[in-house]
Amino acid sequence: MPDTIMLQVTRYRPESEGAPTVQEYEVPLREEWAVLDGLNYVKDHLDGTLSFRWSCRMGICGSCGMTVNGDPALSCGTFLTDHAPGPVRVEPLANFPVIRDLVVEIDDFLLKLPEVKPWLVRDDDGVDGVEFLQTPEQLDAYKQYSMCINCMLCYSACPVYGIEPDFLGPAAIALAQRYNLDSRDQGAHQRLDVLATDAGVWACTYVGECTRACPKGVDPAGAIQRYKLTAAARTLLPWGKR
Amino acid sequence: MAGPGRTARPSRAEAAAWLMFSAGGMVSALLVPVLVLLFGVLFPLGVLAPPDHAGLAALLAHPLVRILLLGLCVLALLHWAHRFRYTLVDGLQLGRMRGPISALCYAAVLAGSVWAAVVLLG
Amino acid sequence: MTRVGATRVGATRVGATQPSTTRYRQPVSLFWWTKRRSYLVFVLRELSSVAVAWFVVHFLLLVTAVHDGPAAYRAFLDWSATPLVLVVDLVALAFVVLHAVTWFTLAPKAIVVRMQGRPVPPRAVAAGHFGAWVVVSAIVAWVLVVML
């Protein structure tokens, strides 16, 4: 195995340039190193001006999403040896505006997420002192959708989101389903108002790339498809479920 | 929040369009391949003997067959309209023309359905 | 609620006048669907709807010919055998088969079927659909080839 590998990293410095450029860095090729380790090596030893997000280094915080060799990926979970001998292209997450270097603006998602009310909604108020019981079968109904770490690789993979920024997006809809399908939740009718819109589930054409990109196996595409039938029924038969 | 012509409320139109698209997708997936194989390829080429005229005409005269075929044609067209308008808008990034594109597609469905009714039921 | 960072393609000023806040909006190519094999397969799947519409046209022309008498029916079959129409129908056949295969494969995702309180595994749902496809096709073929 060669000693080093070349990283071709997107640089964008808005104070001095109008468009991104590419800068090459040669980093050690260690068997256990991920792309994130390579970037940290660059920052520590080669070029302290490189900016990128990261935190947990273990695929749970969702901070380090980037485009690695054309695919949306968590830089902490993508190993350099898998891309040897390189070079490895490291670009910011697609479909998001770039703030600087590999840092993208995720405000759009952060504004959309609370719109789907990703918390337990109850019709009764004040449930102090009550323990909600849930069987393992009831947990299984939504558990997969609760695995989302908000890394937004799915938004990056989704061509509809790239063309249509109003689209609510895979993660937001999957998270809405996580609560819709939770036996303790009573908010499905409230979420319907956001989900069953033109920019909600109906904008999705089931490309399925979101599910491919998801590092936690959430299957947002499946969540959206399941909801389409619910949305259609509840929209066209309003006397039933409201 | 919503782009031009997009509702910020639940859309009954899209819900109905999707239901028709799904129904059309299912019936066309089940029936169209074998019909294209037979009437589009094997019968014209003579690989299999095509049904004789009298028999086929009698089949097409059966009221149940006529209704089912009309249903197939209308649903297949509704399937096409929904999928095709999204393909044009997303594939060619024609978001601003979403309204006219949808209108044209469903106008074609209406025209095709009328033609189907005239041919199959007339 | 204001949307922060709304941008056009290329560098655009946002909020403050400082150049350091200018966001770069990564452009989406007109040929985005050629960039990945999975995108291309997706677009081909979507275009299969045109083949379905073509079937309707071809079929209505066939029925019209049948209603016009044996000679017209024969002429229609001969026209269907001409090279151009044959190629169109062969391409259409490929597309409608693509439509059927992708439709039945993805069907389990749209509906979660429960039997006796347990969810039916997706593979079984898909297999059921494919089985129905075989049965329906066999019945249609039998009616048109054997019975008539």
TrEMBL record, chain A:
Residues 7-96 form the 2Fe-2S ferredoxin-type domain. Its EC number is 1.3.5.1. Gene3D superfamilies: 3.10.20.30, Alpha-helical ferredoxin. The keyword Nucleus does not apply. Its cofactor is [2Fe-2S] cluster; [3Fe-4S] cluster; [4Fe-4S] cluster. InterPro entries: 2Fe-2S_ferredoxin-like_sf, 2Fe-2S_ferredoxin-type, 2Fe2S_fd_BS, 4Fe4S_Fe-S-bd, 4Fe4S_Fe_S_CS, Beta-grasp_dom_sf, Helical_ferredxn, SDH/FRD_Iron-Sulfur. It catalyses: a menaquinone + succinate = a menaquinol + fumarate. Residues 139-168 form the 4Fe-4S ferredoxin-type domain. The keyword Metal-binding applies. Keywords: 2Fe-2S, 3Fe-4S, 4Fe-4S, Iron, Iron-sulfur, Metal-binding, Oxidoreductase, Tricarboxylic acid cycle. Pathway: Carbohydrate metabolism; tricarboxylic acid cycle. Binds 1 [2Fe-2S] cluster. Binds 1 [3Fe-4S] cluster. Belongs to the succinate dehydrogenase/fumarate reductase iron-sulfur protein family. This is Fumarate reductase iron-sulfur subunit.
From TrEMBL, chain C:
The keyword Lipoprotein does not apply. The keyword Metal-binding does not apply. Keywords: Cell membrane, Membrane, Transmembrane, Transmembrane helix. Signal peptide: none annotated. This is Fumarate reductase subunit C. InterPro entries: Fumarate_red_C, SQR/QFR_C/D. It comes from the Bacteria. The chain crosses the membrane at residues 39-61, 81-104, 124-145. The lineage of its organism: Bacteria, Bacillati, Actinomycetota, Actinomycetes, Pseudonocardiales. It comes from Pseudonocardia adelaidensis. Pfam families: Fumarate_red_C (PF02300).
